[in-house]
Amino acid sequence: MKALIAAGGHATRLRPITWTRNKHLIPLANRPMLAHVIDKVIDAGITEIFVNVNPGEGDSMRGALGDGSDKGVRIVYIEQKGGARGIAHAVANAEEYLKGDSFIFFLGDNILLGGIRHMREKFEREHLDCLIALARVKDPQRFGVPELDGDGRVVRMFEKPANPPSPFAVTGIYFFSPEYFEAFKTAKPSARGEYEIMDVINWYIEYRKVGSQEITGWWKDTGTPDALIEGNALIMDDMPRETYCIQCTPHEEAQIQGPVSIAEGTTINADCMIRGPVTIGKNCQIESSYIGPYTSIGDEVKIKDTEVEHSIVLNGAVIDTTRRIVNSLIGVNAQLVDCRRSHPKTGHRLVIGDNSFVEL
């Protein structure tokens, strides 16, 4: 079995952060989002991994994620051809790499608790031709939704229906037999001009054997700033405690509580409290500040006289303000400075793009 990971698109809901980078390279717990997806695929026993990327992004994605040789697998980056024509078309774009084999199709902005090995085992054990991963959600009309019969079998798929026939969302993790490309040839562009994966699955329902697997833990589509920040927190909760380690020497009077990871070269002065789970990258300077739970800080970040909690701070950012920063996404080299030097009384929620300058 092979794997195809979708890592294209323009992530307009995450602008301005995504004006300057592919969203799948935004770090969660200080690792690119896509690295967590690749880990899930490798854990499922897949050694041939193909990543669909935007035109012109193959080299940058390879530079960030490598070719898989350090993990004993092969990762190949496939640049999308023919424009953005739907995720079903993204799979068809990889036909020469996948043809003749069953494969996992994993949308790269999906994160979930646990692995997908059990899904692969079910797909193979039950001799399925298609398996879709489902999650129970409060707003299924935002997603692809299955209609299930009395025995829980999938009988029809709908794309963002106004009246959902079930409380389940299709999560963006699929298993397909080699007949996918036969099914795709029967699909027609939808009203929005895209080839819908739901149409391909409906072909499988009519002509092949289809199954489903409910994700009972958490699942998150990281398509918005809120979801991205929540996804960062969920991943930090899921990280084994042994992966949290301190590779520098904080000041002996600094207070460090709970699971905290701090990379080499970072300095933490005496008047600091860091309460995990927290990850801090290399060569950072943390002075007279509080870093609260579920905060991920990149490399070469400077934080002074500030409280930061439940946020993602990217490389090179400078935060020097007495305000309290919460639920925020701070871009590369962004600067937050204080013009009043007052004590923080309320939280400030921000999405700051790369190379920004903000006074609070």
What does this structure look like?
- The chain is an alpha/beta fold and 360 residues long.
- It folds into two domains: 2-224, Spore Coat Polysaccharide Biosynthesis Protein SpsA, Chain A, CATH 3.90.550.10; 241-359, UDP N-Acetylglucosamine Acyltransferase, domain 1 (3 Solenoid).
- It is built from eight helices and 31 strands.
- Strand 2 (27-28) and strand 3 form a beta hairpin.
Q: Which strand order spans the largest sheet, edge to edge or round the barrel?
A: 5-4-1-6-11-8-12
Q: How many strand elements? A: 31
CATH architecture of the largest domain: Alpha-Beta Complex
- Quaternary state of the chains: single chain
What would the CATH topology of the largest domain be?
Spore Coat Polysaccharide Biosynthesis Protein SpsA, Chain A
Number of helices: 8
Number of domains: 2
Report the radius of gyration as a whole number of Å: 22 Å
What is the CATH C-level name of the largest domain?
Answer: Alpha Beta
How would you describe this structure in keywords?
UDP N-Acetylglucosamine Acyltransferase, domain 1; single chain; Spore Coat Polysaccharide Biosynthesis Protein SpsA, Chain A; 7-stranded mixed β-sheet; 2 domains; alpha/beta; 360 residues; 19% helix
